[in-house]
Design a protein that fits this description.
10 helices
């Protein structure tokens, strides 16, 4: 059994999305890979979660964020979204459905992009600090749920990060980061591309960071988000009825041991 601690639209979405894409690929290719059942533990009160971390949650993840991924089969408790995605690929994609086993260049680029996303690009549009618990303690006030986007973040995207990804798509020939085939790299960066477009329109100054300046990235956004797996991963769990596979269950977040 896998347990994923999750808030829709947060970085835990990466892990859920990777699971859904793996399941889709296994079904379509009739692969010998098998996935455990998944229980999605949702923190429904986001403001409360930002400011009041349950002790059991901090026992699992001292960073006090989502995701936390627990694999009962292997006695694993881990966090950080890209690390969790790496884990799913390593142990549940033995046939290389989302990341080819015998392509060192592609695998190297995937790991580079994952570190770049989690270490840099995620934080350009983030609504919380990587050290949010410390920020709250210093400020002696509840977390700001809608902080202003720093101008240097926009400059970093427009000047350095955005051109890099635009060039990657041009080199690959698209429509995806590795060419014609959707891969694990698109799950990693897909969370960023949603934030850079949709999130900036709704919580920034109403302007996408990719349209119209980055035409290939805009087309990439459209291509990635027309996928049913993408739409499901980013949707509210209240909309999942009749859509999710039988091996996925949604519960309110509780210690996973309570479900045994």
């Amino acid at each position: 059994m896998l347990h994923l601690y999750h808030i829709p639209g947060f970085r835990s979405t990466r892990v859920l999305w990777m699971f859904l894409e793996l399941q889709k690929a296994i079904k379509e290719t009739k692969s010998t890979n098998t996935l455990p059942n998944l229980i999605v533990h949702e923190f429904k009160d986001v403001a409360k979660f930002r400011n009041e971390k349950p002790k059991w949650c901090l026992d699992y993840n001292p960073n006090g964020k989502v995701p936390t991924l627990i694999d009962e089969r292997n006695d694993v408790i881990m966090w950080e979204s890209c690390a969790c995605c790496h884990y799913l690929l390593e142990f549940y994609d033995s046939n290389g459905l989302l990341l080819k086993k015998k392509n060192p260049k592609q695998r190297a680029l995937y790991h580079q992009l994952a570190c770049y996303s989690s270490g840099t690009v995620d934080n350009l549009t983030s609504t919380s600090s990587p050290i949010q618990r410390a920020v709250n303690e210093v400020q002696k006030s509840p977390a700001d749920m809608n902080p202003l986007i720093k101008e240097e973040n926009r400059i970093a995207w427009n000047t350095y990060c955005g051109p890099y990804y635009e060039n990657l798509l041009e080199q690959s020939g698209g429509p995806f980061l590795f060419g014609n085939d959707f891969s694990a790299a698109d799950v990693i960066f897909g969370l960023n591309i949603l934030a850079l477009h949709d999130k900036m329109i709704t919580r920034g100054d109403g302007i996408s960071w990719i349209d119209p300046k980055f035409q290939l990235l805009f087309k990439y956004h459209e291509k990635v988000f027309e996928r049913p797996t993408t739409k499901l991963a980013f949707s509210q769990t209240s909309m999942w009825k009749g859509l999710i596979p039988d091996n996925i269950k949604v519960v309110s977040a509780v210690p996973y041991s309570d479900l045994k």
